[in-house]
Amino acid sequence: MEVNEERQPEQPVSAEEVAAAAEASPEDVAGERVAQQPEAGAQPPASRDPQPAAAGQERPPRAAERPPRPPAQATTGERPPRSTSDVPGRVPEPAAVAVAQPRPESVGVRLENLRLTPVEIEQPKALYRSVLPGILQVPADFIIAAARKSSLWPMTFGLACCAIEMIATYMSHHDLDRFGIVPWPSPRQCDVMIVAGTVTKKMAPAVKLLYQQMPNPKWVISMGACATNGGPYTRYDRVLQGVDKIIPVDVYVPGCPPRPEALIDGFVALQNKIMEERSRVG
Amino acid sequence: MAIEPETQVEREFETQDLFVNIGPQHPATHGVFRMVLEVDGEVVRNLIPHIGYMHRGGEKLSEHMDYRQAIGYQDRTEYLSQFNAELCYVLAVEKLAGLVPPERAEYIRIILTELNRVSSHFMFLGAFGTDLGVFGTSFTYAFREREHILDLFEEVSGDRLMYAYFRPGGVAWDVPRDFKDRVRWVCKQALVGADDMDKLLTDNEIFIARTRNIGKLSIEDAIDYGVTGPMLRASGMKFDLRRDEPYSIYDRFDFDIPVGTNGDCYDRYLVRLQEIRESIRIVEQAVEQMPDEGPILPERMPRMLRPAAGEVYMRCEDPRGEYGVYIISKGATQPYRCRIRSPSFCNLSALKHMTVGHFVADAVTILGATDIVLCSVDR
Amino acid sequence: MSPEERRAPAQPAVVAPPEGSVADLFKAALPDVEMTAIQGALDVLLIVDGKDAHRVLETAKHHPALAFDFLRNLCGVDYEAEGFEVVYHLYSYKHRHNVTIRAKVPREDPRIQTASDIWRAADWHERECRDMFGIVFEGHPNLVPLLLPEDMLDHFPLRKDNPLAPLEEWQGEALGPEMGRAGHIPPGSGFDVEPSAEGE
User: Fold this and answer.
1) Which end of chain A has the least Cβ crowding within 10 Å, N or C?
2) ipTM greater than 0.90, yes or no?
3) Which residues, in sequence order, are bridge partners of residue B39?
4) Closest CA of chain C from B343, distance in Å
5) Contact present, C113 and C57 (Cβ < 8 Å)
6) Residues 6+ positions from C36 with CB-CB distance below 8 Å
7) pLDDT tens per residue across span B3-22
């Protein structure tokens, strides 16, 4: 970073260099992300480096290193106008009929082999887009989370009356298979535990053991009033007042018992939660 | 409890007894039932049942509730035949308080109770088939019919499972206007569903091989263990509380009592399948006799129920057997003691007697044919 | 008959059973046992002492005129100052008649002889009754806890002096001081314990 700052006043950046660097860069994902940071405008373009920079090196400066903003900007949220060519990584409009300057140390296209005539520069593209068209470009955790949420395997584990509604949800009318949710009787291959019913103090160690037997990542749906806080049986001293006293719960489904639609809604909420927490779930 | 080796060969190949734990979380136990099997090879030598994983004190909590509030605990205790349990409780309170429900309310109750018996037996057929390895097929067929009936119950009471619709003296509110047409349609569908299950299971060779002569129970043993309901009738005892101690208005209907001959799991299945058709017969008669107009609660209904001091043990024919409610009143607004005699509890106590001597796989069959509701066992 | 005509008056507390009922058969079969007969709402009630209970039950099962072969129900009742009662509901498939036998058990020493040697159905009922009330059934072959865990026998849930559980905080302090108290009834406000239980 500091090296770049030293060079900045001496060597202005031309459009071709930027275009060439962007085309040659394999780290397109990281490059785009950086390019959208407006604070990076003060930084020199990455193309001055002999090799296209890795994602970590192009990170915008931390808050402490940034020049302090005037307070008016903070309140209005407006920024001073800035020309597009100032932004590194972003290419100016194709207007540019650029005249190539002889520059022996340049990276990418060897300009000295070209004739000294105006050249049209194409829109920049990531390399893999031309090689493999139609590829979705997403982070890896997104793909992993999408795979996880699309094949949730809940454990068939009915405790009390809610289990009947849970079975009804699996069966012909409501058909949880549409969501890729398939019941599985063993805790070792399961992702989701549906606590469907009252958890008594005699049953609590077994529920906790079942939860510990499930491999990570795992989620828990507390189905019905009894599993959430004891429900109608909360005043009896043999009943655990909520399964969240022994295991962590992700989604609470209210009702006594919840309708099958409510359980499906609980699953959809769990799927949304998996997508939201995709960077956190190991 | 291994057999003492007698011959030289038996001594050389002597096997060790093995304890197999099933439950409390196991798909074949229909809830949180745990049994420890002591097996010698593949043969069950001893069975130690463990219950109480769902003991949540409905009896105790009913003592701290108003008579009408405690109806909800009956639903949750007998969660597959809620109207039957409600009817029994409500009749017990009526006996204590001296209330007489009007005609129309009686017919509404009988129709709903018998349809509830049908839906409960469909649940049995689905679960029993799944226990025997008809993976999911019987369940999906059974739930197709069950959902028709549950939709009707929802239209009437507002909930799919926990109705709390019966009240001491009648029902909570009137039925929808097209109630009779809906009931007739549901009856037609249920008969189709019963025929489907009949075709699917009854003549199936594997099904017969796995249920015939499994878990036999003689009449004497059944009575001694307090076994009631379809299990008792499968053993050959022609006894049904609806006919032998008629309550409500069951004496006005014409129906048969299916009886088995062998007392095995196959007979239990056949008895329940036939009971679906008999219940539909009762419902069809009740729909014809039911008055179109009329009150659903007695006039001058007290705002607060305060039955006179006394006690009553009311029993009704549940889909699983004799459901009893024993209420002791001391003249207060809350029952002094509310005991629930659950049929599943007593039927389950004969499980060890039925299972010992059979294979391990048959233990699941016998447990499935017992058709227990674990909340009702533990209460 | 209209519903108004069928309306029965509220049941008075004590009515003697009519002539020729089951109570007379019991008195003829067991002339030396003290028993009080009451006509209940459905069945005839017989109140006997706990020491005579086993004899009465054995007679009820094996006497040919009684022949009560089906134990419908067995449960305990806590009458607070008047001690416990063990209630047997019997039915005869042969004669089609009912009786309810209430055996009194003192509160200080709750013991009664088992009925599991007469009906095997009594086995589980008595184990449950022992869990709930602490009544010991002497001679029971396997009187271990049935419904309750074996390490939770410090008190008996269905006894009247056993209060309901207080409500606990639902979410704890993790949500901050205000959210954490939502739905929580502070102790001492009179609602955390059942008033009747608190008075004792």
Assistant:
1) C
2) no
3) B18, B44
4) 10
5) no
6) C46, C47
7) 566 777 776 777 778 888 88
